[in-house]
Amino acid sequence: VQLVESGGGSVQTGGSLRLSCVASGYTFSRSSVGWFRQAPGKEREGVAHIATDSDRTYYTDSVEGRFTISQDNAKNTVYLQMDSLKPEDTAMYYCATDWRGIDWPPHSGDYGYWGQGTQVTVS
Questions:
Q1: pLDDT digits over 16-51, tens only?
Q2: Cα angle vertex 59, ends 16, 42, to 5°?
Q3: Which of 27, 33, 67, 70 has the smallest count of CB within 10 Å of its CB?
Q4: Helix (H) and strand (E) counts for the chain?
Q5: What is the Rg, in whole angstroms, of the alpha carbon atoms belonging to the chain?
Q6: Which residues lie across from 121 on neighbouring strands?
Q7: Tell me: the pLDDT tens digits for 89-117?
C-alpha cells in the first residue's frame, strides 16, 4: 500500500489549496480515506474522511463548510479542497487509508496506512 500526497504550499489568509492523495496497492474502491493534520506542538487532528464505496463523508467542525473531500475512483485519488484558509489551518497534512474495521467517523487508530505528508502554510 502506498499513499502519496501533493498540493501543499504557502497561501495567504482566505486563499485556497487542493491536496491530492494518490493511492496504490489495494482495492481503493472499498476503503476509507482520511485527511489528518498536525501542527508543531499539537496533537494530530482528523480533518475529513470519505468512504470510497458509498461516498459518505465526515468533517471536523473547524473545517465544515470550508473544506471538501472528494474522490476520483478512476485515478485512485482523494482530494481535499481547502477554501477560506486561516492561519490556524497551518500544519503538515497527511492522508491515511484502511478497509478493516473502520468506525464512523473514523479515528486515527482505524487507519493502518499513512502517506508522508504535505505542508500547508497560511499567513
A1: 999 999 999 999 999 999 999 999 999 999 999 999
A2: 80
A3: 27
A4: 0, 11
A5: 13
A6: 10
A7: 999 999 999 999 788 999 999 999 999 99
